[in-house]
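TL;DR need C-alpha cells for one chain.
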Amino acid sequence: MITTTVPPTAPPPRIAPSSAPPSPPEAGSPSGTAGTGDADRTMRRGDEGAEVLRLQQQLREVGVQTAPLNGSYDQPTEAAVQNYQSMRRIEADPPGVYGPATRSALEAET
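>> reply
TL;DR here they are.
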C-alpha cells in the first residue's frame, strides 16, 4: 500500500483593517470640509483658498473695502465681514465670522 502525505495547507493570509489615520483636509480648505457642502461652510480668520477670495470679491462688489484680494481670511477680511454684518444688522453669526446668515445676505446681493 502506498501512502501519500499531503503538505499542510496554510490558512489564507489575514488582512488587518487599515489603522492609517484619515487623510488630511485638502490644502486651503478650512476645518477639513472640502467637498462637503462648501457652499454652507462657515469661514473665519485663518482660512485660505478660492472661497475666501470669492468672499473678498463679493464684499468689494457691495462696497465693503477689504485689504488685498489674496484668498486669506486675515484680520482685514475679518474686519470687512464684521463691517458688512454691522451695516446689514446681521446678528445670527459671530462678529467677523462668515456664517450661514452672513453668507445668505451677501449672496442675495451679489
